[in-house]
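Example: Cupin.
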Amino acid sequence: MAPTPLPAEIVKLIDRLQLQPHPEGGFYRETWRSDLSLPQSALPSDYTGDRAAGTAILFLLPTSHYSRWHRVRSAELWFHQSGDPLELTISETLDGAAQTIFLGRDNCWQAVVPPQYWQKAKPIAGEAGYALVACVVVPGFDFADFELSDI
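Written out as structure tokens, the predicted fold is:
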């Protein structure tokens, strides 16, 4: 079955923000990567190399999309930017208790996902048809530190 086509307004926003598809779902663009590099020797032993001190992305989830369960080795901060509210669910394990955080107007504006916690997100359907957030990862994001669940 083919994915539902996105409304023209959301396609225009994706184009204007120069976003590309993200492996976990939705669309993203890296907007910042620190020039400061943290050597592997300064990081916990489970890091496989040097990392940027921090990174940031814009991340857009249309109402018809969601972010699948995934985790990153570093802490991740989520900041609601515009659009509809976002439901962010985090858990230390995939089969353990989960915490749900609502980001956006009339809710929290930011949330922190601890290192190695599983996380997933979906927009709450509303007038905008999408949720736009900024995500900051410290130490900086590297796909070597990213794990996508198959559930």
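The mean pLDDT is 96.
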